[in-house]
Amino acid sequence: MPTADDRPDETPEPADSACETDFSEGHPEGPAVAGPAGGRSGSGGQGHGGGHSHSHGLDGAATATGKHRTRLILVLCITLGIFLVQVAGALVSRSLSLLADAGHMLTDATGVAIALVASLIAGLPATSKRTFGYLRVEVLAALANGIVLGVIAVVIFVEAIRRFGSEVEIQSVPMLVAAVIGAIANLASLLILQSGQKESLNVRGAYLEVLGDLLGSVAVIVAGVIILLTGWNVVDQIASLLIAVLIFPRAVSLLRDVVDVLLEAAPKHIDVDEARDHMLAVPGVVEIHDVHAWTITSGVPAFSAHVTVSDEAWDRLGHHAILDELRACLGEHFDTSHVTLQLEPARHARHEDELHA
């Protein structure tokens, strides 16, 4: 086993050092799958002595939501402004569908505000008791957002059903004006959030909510035109039901992604079996076990494994060269920079088996 004197320099390497690693002949090509940020980080974990590799990329790193904070603030301002416009329009027109759209707007604003606060809390440094800091706060915020979305959908649905059979006079002109303004604002917000919705659960939650608002505004516009031309006020209730139906599946989708993170399912861009095959292709590696891949928070995947190396390769190549190729593979091919690997020679693995027999 290496001694303390054999430990490599722990000075951080350049960010692109893993990209420069030459893979051994026959090493598989990386899968054609974009990582959580829509690209490849090209970086692996930092190497430590004793056959361990730990990435320190979490220290001071911005979370996925934090990187898009300015966009979220802009969308929050737009959403609050349109909420006030639609509430005024709903009170004047007596339109349930417009009021439902306004309620959804308020939910959007609340969700974005929660995401912003969560991103600030998630940026707090890690401590000895909270070794990952508060990164998961963003995920909890997305959970709250998804629950509120679902509740709003149910409330709108129930109120629309309750209104059937009762005649409510709808003022179509103010209804149309407020809905058109809302649709234009929602379209602008969608364009603002487009680039960040693939990186962060909270940005994606906001994006889905605004998309639902846009569809809801379109439904209100159609209902308003029909009421203006025909006087069929029941169309307003139908539009309200449609808005509720649009909201609910998006809430379920967001909650499903949150549950995957909280249950520490493997990130969607990491095929664990394929990652194991890649690691086994590194010369000298004879076994991979205790493999774990999970998501700490949006845009921060993590990977750990125990790696058994043949005694001949351990003595001839040294664990440093093997470790470098392993972490370069995981960084370049699977876009995972927070990597922890425990390397051990086969003779030590046999010794452990005897101890645990």
Automatic annotation (TrEMBL):
Family assignment from sequence similarity: Belongs to the cation diffusion facilitator (CDF) transporter (TC 2.A.4) family. SLC30A subfamily.
InterPro entries: Cation_efflux, Cation_efflux_CTD, Cation_efflux_CTD_sf, Cation_efflux_TM, Cation_efflux_TMD_sf, CDF/SLC30A
Stored Pfam families: Cation_efflux, ZT_dimer
Domain Cation efflux protein cytoplasmic, residue spans: 267-345
Provenance organism: Leucobacter chromiisoli
Segments passing through the bilayer: 72-93, 105-127, 139-161, 173-193, 214-232
N-terminal signal peptide: none
Compositionally biased intervals (Basic and acidic residues): 1-10
Limits of the Cation efflux protein transmembrane domain: 72-263
Alphabetized GO MF terms: zinc ion transmembrane transporter activity
Protein's name in the database: Cation transporter
Alphabetical keyword list: Ion transport, Membrane, Transmembrane, Transmembrane helix, Transport
Region of interest called Disordered, as start-end residue ranges on this chain: 1-62
UniProt biased composition (Gly residues): 36-52
Gene3D superfamilies: Cation efflux protein transmembrane domain, Cation efflux protein, cytoplasmic domain
One Gene Ontology term, aspect cellular component: plasma membrane
Membrane association type: Multi-pass membrane protein
Highest taxon, organism lineage: Bacteria
Intracellular or extracellular location(s): Membrane
